[in-house]
Specification:
There is one protein chain. The protein is 42% helix and 19% strand. Strands 1, 2, 3, 4, 5, 6, 7, 8 and 9 form a 9-stranded mixed sheet that branches. By secondary structure, the protein is α/β, with parallel strands linked by helices. It folds into 2 domains: 231 residues, Spore Coat Polysaccharide Biosynthesis Protein SpsA, Chain A, CATH 3.90.550.10; 83 residues. It is built from 12 helices and 9 strands. The chain starts with a strand and ends with a helix.
Length: 330
């Protein structure tokens, strides 16, 4: 693989969003000797995303930058990204969602920072919410659900035990992915699946990169606008994200144990399910407390419930997953 940047855009029915994403990429300020490409993965779309993207890129006049469009019929964001990585050809990879508008210096800054420190395995910046509607009152509190916040307090490595980065605008060193491949890493979460808001794939990948010996990095220079259509700013949509985050968090609990160096015995699952049951009972009690806002009570109760479901579904799998994840450190 050569020196340069491969931008991977995974699309499912993205016709209404892809123009601004491509337009912002066409405005990237890069020196002539910095090679880069765009790999657009059509993840079983039923609209004209593929044809429209090709047409728009020609109209944007960046004939110097190749736009590759490939199909991935197996639905799921993780599958689409894997396909894009396999097709791409450069040593720096950027995940640009179909609603991410990267600032004009994003590519150059990402490439410069990543290649100045070989210990960095993955890097993220700050997503800034932008919408065609008004952001709801609850958005500031729950903006983490939409990847719209700075992922660190200051420029540098993330040092907290359970640090991870969201997938929007994520910059990855290909060497880190190759090391994971050599260790036969296989993600357990498919991430977004068409209109299903399953999640957690970003966190799992970041955990795996850390266990493979690389650092996660936050850069204040990396900024992008995250476009949120008005239909994604409803309470119903937020509840769906909340449920998905709860389920995926409990499915990634074995990574937490490996990161803190805790051995997973056959009794750990039982302890976790009892603990989650206690949390669910507490959330149920708070749900009945009229002193708390109804919106927050419902969010907390749903999070506790789906966390418990996630733990229940791992019955009999704890030790196996522990051994698989532990191999990433070897």
């Amino acid at each position: 693989m050569g020196a340069g940047i491969s931008i991977i855009i995974c699309c499912y029915n993205s016709a209404s969003r892809i123009y601004e994403t491509l337009r912002h990429l066409s405005l990237q300020k890069t020196p002539g000797d910095l090679a880069w490409e765009i790999v657009l993965v059509d993840n079983a779309s039923t609209d004209n995303t593929r044809e429209l993207a090709s047409k728009l890129w020609r109209e944007l006049g960046r004939s110097d930058i190749k736009l590759k469009i490939v199909n991935q019929p197996m639905q799921g964001l993780s599958f689409a990204r894997t396909k894009g990585i396999a097709i791409s050809r450069y040593n720096t990879i950027i995940f640009c969602d179909d609603d991410n508008w990267l600032q004009s210096n994003y590519l150059l800054d990402a490439y410069s920072i990543l290649n100045s420190n070989p210990q960095i395995g993955a890097m993220g910046g700050t997503g800034i919410a932008v919408s065609d509607g008004t952001l709801p009152d609850w958005f500031e509190k729950y903006k983490f659900c939409f990847a719209c916040y700075p992922q660190g307090k200051a420029e540098g490595a993330l040092s907290e035990v359970f640090s991870s980065l969201y997938g929007a605008g994520l910059v990855i060193r290909r060497e880190a992915l190759m090391k994971l491949s050599s260790k036969k890493f296989e993600p357990s979460l498919p991430d977004r699946l068409a209109t299903n808001l399953s999640s957690g794939g970003d966190t799992e990948l970041c955990y795996a990169i850390r266990l493979a010996g690389f650092k996660l990095w936050f850069s204040e220079k990396l900024k992008f606008h995250h476009y949120l259509s008005s239909d994604r700013l409803s309470e119903k949509y937020l509840f769906r994200i909340n449920e998905s985050l709860a389920y995926s968090k409990s499915n990634l609990i074995i990574y937490d144990y490996v990161l803190i160096g805790k051995e997973v015995t056959r009794f750990v699952w039982l302890k976790d399910i009892i603990y989650q049951l206690i949390l669910l009972c507490n959330s149920s009690i708070r749900f009945l407390n009229v002193m708390n806002p109804s919106f927050e009570r419902r969010m907390n109760l749903a999070f506790s419930f789906y966390s418990m479901i996630g733990i229940l579904n791992q019955c009999g799998k704890y030790r196996l997953r522990y051994k698989e994840i532990l191999r990433l450190k070897e």
